[in-house]
Amino acid sequence: MRRDVRYGKDTCIACGTCGVIAPEVFEYDESGFSQSVLDNNEGTQAVPEEVAEDVEEAYEACPSGSIKLNDTPFKPKTPVSN
Q: Which end of the chain has fewer CB atoms < 10 Å from its terminal CB, N or C?
């Protein structure tokens, strides 16, 4: 099954759980919050099968619910205009 992942930086508490469970997919950005490295946190690239179980485990273990999974690619993020 296809799974796409995006990380909600606005709810991340930087606990590091996702990076411990699935280091191939999650790492900290320059602000200290986690993000998906698959596609720069856009949620448009399918999670590779060899790490899909780890991503599911990280999703279930995330204390802030910041990991978002989808069976289809996420819609592109809309830039905020001032």
A: C
